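Appendix B. Raw example, untouched.
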Amino acid sequence: IDTDVINAVHLEGSKPTKHVTVAVTGAAGQIAYSLLPHLLSGTVFGADTAVSLRLMNPTQDKLQGVVLELEDLAKDSLRSIVTTDKAEVCFEGADVAILLGAFPRTAGMERKDLLARNSAIFAAQGRALAKVASATCIVLVVGNPANTNAAILAENAAPRIAPGNITALTRLDQNRLKAQLARRIGGVQCAGIRRAIIWGNHSATQFPDVSHVTVHGRPLATSLRDTSFDLWSNDDKSQAPLCMWARGELVTTVQQRGAAVIHLRKLSSAMSAAAACADHLRDLLHGSEDWVSMAVPSDGSYDIPKGVWYSFPCHCYGNGTYDIVRDLDHDEFGQAKMRGTAAELIQELKDATASLAEPAPPGGWHQMLP
């Protein structure tokens, strides 16, 4: 394969009034296969928006198969497709960049080696984004370890691309949390559940928090009481009573959901991850009445150190603007969970940053796997 050849397919369709250029890495991978139709459906960017796709993948033959299927969707929203294995080509003029590709953890690989490989990849991609993407590019990092990859990317994309434009995906965890609550309560749609929160890392240390959840406007504890669950309250009577299940089994189920999918499917989450990416971008671009959990650069809120990409509940206002939800109270249980996941992120970032100061192994770490 001649990697210098850029394959461009221009498709004629209707002429929407708006246009967005979207870069996707790992574009022949599992998540991309489920995500790309969402990007052309009108639900993410709007029915009046034409989409130009710039797709990056190290395996070009597989990517050309994806192009054939994109053509066969017959979507009038699709203006053009560019395929490449080079970051600068992928990110050229990008208004939105979705970074799905990352180096996966293989059998016997040490955690520090995984961080080192991905740090090199995302540092290089950060520099490429700064060089050729739109200065207002909105970047979603999905490839794991997503929080720390986002931090490394932002360090290298600055100052041209603002750190706040770079977020990492924890919406999948928030969706999992809502789904578990809906199933447990019964007779409730996920849309009626609000203020479910994921704090911290997209890892097994994350804190799925239901202490502020409402169900059709009522406190979660009220809904649980209506279904005869045993409730308990802390010594601090100002705290709403919570079901023991919500602090035990529920937390563990959400934390380990990805591992459960891999165990049964022998592959990581793809369909649900793609849907979460679409949800994340839709709310970021168009706003949301509900709190949106996403990993963003900490500004010191909740005593989380600056420089860490930490999942917070956010108000999304549209056009990529958001604020962290402030002044939420936590009891000792919640505070301990938040500190624990923060400690993991701080150590990850230290290890990742240190690895960038070390020489790369022979052959480099530039390769990306779907």
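End of appendix B.
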